[in-house]
Specification:
The chain is of the alpha/beta class. Helices cover about 40% and strands about 20% of the residues. The protein has 18 helices and 18 strands.
Length: about 500
């Protein structure tokens, strides 16, 4: 065992011990965060307008601070972007994470000196939990790659801005610098296809042990490696033992990954976003990711069934239940207050609190009242693929409300790597799994309001071509799993 491995094991024990202190006292941990946030921001413009000086409980906060999305908070963010001080948080942010918005163009998410460290520490701690649980440390001696956005930053009124993954690249610890790939120049490449080709050339002859990124884009990297090496990635990188991912559910990609690698590889799931780092997988045995309750973020939860009602109940951590779909609402030490990030979660464990990402509050199908969510379509596809040779590259689902013949249906657009022998039988397997999960969908099928779902095959690289056509190839961009209209699939069909 190398000196680096020994240090990693010792550090892992310390971090796990520290984690247990707050995870075993979750309500107290969240109350402490809440009090610190309110106290720190009471003299800001937002704090004064929302009477933070008079807030002493969560009920006070809920009465004074409505739930907002980016559009509703934009009037305050714009003032920060324009250079004003003490608007959402004391002083000014040190960065803006720039993301693409659907209705407002670019979104500018503030990152402060208080919030930034947690983005770095959470990813590190996820790896340390893995080390502590498994005892595996050899991977720390090899090369690690993190597929991410360009670290080149712009500047707006004295504040640097860029993609979150590009900003994070500036904070890679010194002890990882020698192991980290790709090179700085390659990482700065903006064109995703060019960048992946450069990464392949740089990493091809290296001892890669850890690979990280959004599964769909790592898949693209693996395909190019396999094409160049003419053998599985696992044979090229014999010591590749850990895959770290976030952004989407890995299950739909798992079979394809194992085929590309040629063997199974351990994985760690993360739940990062520009607005905060919310959770990471702390166990290789338990389902879900540990919700980070002491990281400068106060959480609220609204049941998705009630979300669009006039006054939905806002729950805190001590009030949540297992297997209920909640919209995730956050208040942070970057100055986001009762902010709807758009993600939905379900709790898989309450001791400690672990979550899975179940979808997006705006990404659903309810053309007929069925309210199908992302977790349901991913689970249905996984079940249909079990014990088969079927592999997929990507998929999305949309309603077909006005078919040329017959009843309406849900249309699944799937790019197959390995097609099923019998597509009709595969459709029925997915449909049965959907009906088992969603009683409303089941009732619509039974009541002859909908017919069973249909699959439309997407040509090879069809999803990549679509993402490229809208300027979202690579980086942190993802295909929505489902939509309540046909805007996305209309473009896929046009291809």
């Amino acid at each position: 065992m190398t000196f680096k491995e020994i240090l990693a094991q010792l550090f892992a024990k310390k971090i796990v011990k520290d984690t247990q202190k707050w995870s075993q006292n979750p309500v107290a941990a969240q109350q402490k965060v809440f009090s610190q946030l309110i106290s720190k921001a009471k003299s800001t413009s937002f704090g004064k307008e929302h009477h933070f000086s008079k807030i002493s409980s969560f009920s006070d906060f809920a009465q004074n601070v409505p739930v907002r999305d980016y559009e509703a908070l934009k009037q305050y963010v714009d003032r920060v972007v324009n250079g004003e001080n003490n608007i959402l948080w004391p002083g000014k942010p040190i960065y803006f994470a720039k993301t693409s918005g659907t209705t407002s163009g670019a979104k500018y998410i503030p990152l402060t000196k208080e919030s930034m460290p947690f983005h770095i520490e959470a990813a590190r701690n996820a790896i340390l939990h893995y080390i502590n649980q498994t005892g595996k440390t050899a991977f720390v001696n090899g090369k690690m790659i993190f597929l991410q956005g360009s670290p080149i930053l712009e500047e707006k009124n004295g504040i640097k801005l860029g993609r979150l993954s590009g900003i994070v690249a500036h904070f890679v610890p010194k002890y990882l610098q020698k192991n980290r790939m790709p090179s700085w120049n390659t990482n700065c490449e903006e064109d995703w296809e060019t960048k992946v080709n450069l990464i392949v050339e740089e990493t091809f002859s290296e001892d890669m042990t850890v690979i990280s990124g959004i599964p769909s884009w790592v898949q693209m990297y693996f395909e190019k490696l396999q094409e160049k090496a003419d053998k599985p990635v696992g044979e090229l990188f014999k010591n590749f033992t850990l895959f770290i991912y976030g952004g989407v559910n890995f299950e739909p990609y798992r079979a394809k990954f194992e085929n590309l690698i040629g063997r199974k590889v351990a994985s760690i799931e993360l739940f990062p976003a520009s607005e905060g780092f919310f959770a990471y997988q702390d166990s290789q045995e338990e389902k879900g990711m540990l919700l980070l309750l002491n990281s400068g973020i106060f959480y609220e939860f609204i049941k998705t069934d009630d979300f669009y009602s006039e006054t939905p109940k806002r729950y805190t951590i001590g009030e949540v239940e297992l297997n209920v779909n909640y919209a995730l609402i956050i208040s942070t030490n970057a100055g986001l207050w009762a902010y709807n990030i758009g993600d939905t979660v379900q709790f898989t464990c309450l001791k400690p609190y672990r979550v899975i990402v179940s979808g997006r509050i705006k990404h659903f199908i309810s053309a007929f009242g069925e309210h199908v969510i992302g977790k349901e379509v991913e689970t249905a596809l996984k079940e249909a693929m079990e014990n088969s040779t079927v592999r997929i590259n990507e998929f999305t689902v949309a309603p077909q409300i006005s078919p040329l013949n017959g009843l309406p249906y849900h249309e699944w657009f799937i790019e197959f790597e390995n097609e099923p022998d019998n597509i009709e039988q595969f459709q029925l397997k997915i449909d049965a799994a959907m009906r088992k999960q969603n009683i409303y969908y089941d009732d619509l099928i039974k009541g002859n309001v909908l017919q069973t779902l249909k699959i439309t095959k997407v040509k090879q690289n069809g999803f990549q071509e679509y993402m490229k056509s809208i300027g979202k190839l690579g980086g942190q961009n993802k295909i929505p799993r489902l939509s309540n209209d046909r805007k996305i699939v209309a473009n896929l069909i046009a291809k």
